[in-house]
Write a structure and sequence with these properties.
Blueprint: H1 2-7, H2 9-12, E1 27-31, H3 40-47, H4 65-75, E2 81-85, H5 88-102, E3 106-109, E4 114-120, H6 121-140, E5 148-155, E6 162-163, E7 168-171, H7 179-185, E8 190-193, H8 196-199, E9 207-209, H9 214-227, E10 232-235, H10 239-245, H11 250-270, E11 277-279, E12 299-304, E13 312-316, H12 321-329, H13 342-346
Parallel strand pairs: 1-13, 2-3, 4-5, 8-9, 8-10
Antiparallel strand pairs: 1-12, 3-4, 5-6, 5-7, 11-12
Length: 348
């Protein structure tokens, strides 16, 4: 990954195949998570300056009978399939044919705080799937602290079911102010690319752009870089997680990293001298372990601007240092969690 290597990815710590740069172009370090959990919601909230002080609810044995009774009552479904912890691709292959025959949605969870509902786009209907997900979020889970309800549509025939890109996440409303709120209230345009809108319940985001792939996400980043000035672009490239981390596919993960590295060169070349680029993550998802779940670990931190020198930022105490730094970049007073690092870089 030559472009990430030039920025200083290999300077953060030993990475096989990514040597440390002698003169890295970016400041580098890593950040630890102080919020409870290890999922997209808690990770993104902390990146935006909001710490989750209470943990979400988890259901390793499936959802309790009373909750599922409420699910049937509120959604009007005649029944459900699954109600267990499972891999999304595995459970649709196992229960997809029965789902088509019965018309019952497939309900499952994971090690994260999620209530996932899978249904066939053609036999069950995409609009109906979205409808029962909204009901589940707003009525079924009204008294439960569940991070996300996720619509998991799929298509195909028995033996060849495939999930589509029409996934929608129904997240909890952020429990406090975030960087997005701060920027939005100060008249700055905020652009959410990928699943950002879902994770913040669409709050304080001027423009929400859903994407179909990492490649599409990079194209949208470039598009908004070129057509907007003085705005904040927050993008999530979900393929690493969905298609490779959760599926224990290190070869696919490697290919996706190389594709992102190619796009990164174009993104950097398109930056103006005043632009600031921060590259990081919301959690881990190691494709080489037996588990298909997220992994709680340090996330990489690369901070690049043509005007800034390279500084070793070390180990940051919170993901929220990123939010604090963006607020400093836009010169906005704030009470967000975290410690900004822009002054550390400029003082070199």
């Amino acid at each position: 990954m030559p472009n990430l290597q030039k920025l200083g990815l290999g300077n953060i710590g030993p990475i096989k195949g990514v040597e440390p740069a002698i003169e890295p172009l970016a400041s580098f370090g890593k950040m630890k998570e102080i919020s409870q959990g290890k999922d997209s919601t808690s990770g993104h909230w902390e990146l935006m300056g909001l710490h989750s002080k209470i943990d979400f609810e988890y259901f390793p044995e499936g959802f309790p009978p009373a909750l599922m009774d409420r699910f049937l009552q509120k959604t009007g479904c005649g029944g459900f399939l699954g109600n267990c912890t499972a891999s999304g691709t595995e459970i649709i292959n196992r229960l997809g044919e029965e789902h088509i025959k019965t018309g019952f949605p497939i309900v499952y969870t994971s090690a994260d705080s999620v209530f996932q509902i899978a249904a066939h786009e053609e036999h069950f209907g995409l609009d109906r799937l979205y409808e029962i997900c909204e009901i589940t979020r707003n009525e079924v889970l009204k008294h439960n602290i569940v991070g996300r309800v996720i619509a998991r549509p799929f298509i195909g025939e028995p033996g060849s079911f495939v999930r589509t890109t029409n996934r929608v996440d129904y997240s909890l409303e952020p429990t406090g102010d975030t960087l997005l709120d701060l920027l939005y209230e100060n008249g700055l345009r905020t652009v959410g690319i990928g699943k950002i809108g879902d994770l913040f319940n669409y709050r304080s985001i001027s423009e929400v752009i859903h994407t179909e792939s990492n490649e599409d996400g990079c194209k949208q980043i470039l598009k908004f870089m070129k057509k907007t000035k003085g705005c904040f672009i927050l993008a999530n490239l979900v393929d690493f997680d969905v298609y490779f981390g959760h599926r224990n596919d290190p070869q696919g993960f490697s290919k996706a990293l190389k594709e992102f590295d190619d796009n990164l060169e174009t993104i950097i070349d398109s930056m103006s001298k005043d632009d600031l680029l921060i590259i990081t993550a919301d959690h881990g998802n190691d494709p080489t372990t037996k588990s298909t779940d997220h992994s709680r670990e340090y996330v990489p931190l690369l901070v690049y601007s043509e005007k800034l020198p390279s500084v070793n930022l070390g180990i940051r105490d919170s993901f929220s240092d990123a939010a604090k730094t963006v607020a400093e970049y836009f010169d906005i007073e704030n009470s967000l969690s975290g410690k900004e690092f822009l002054s550390e870089i400029k003082s070199k």
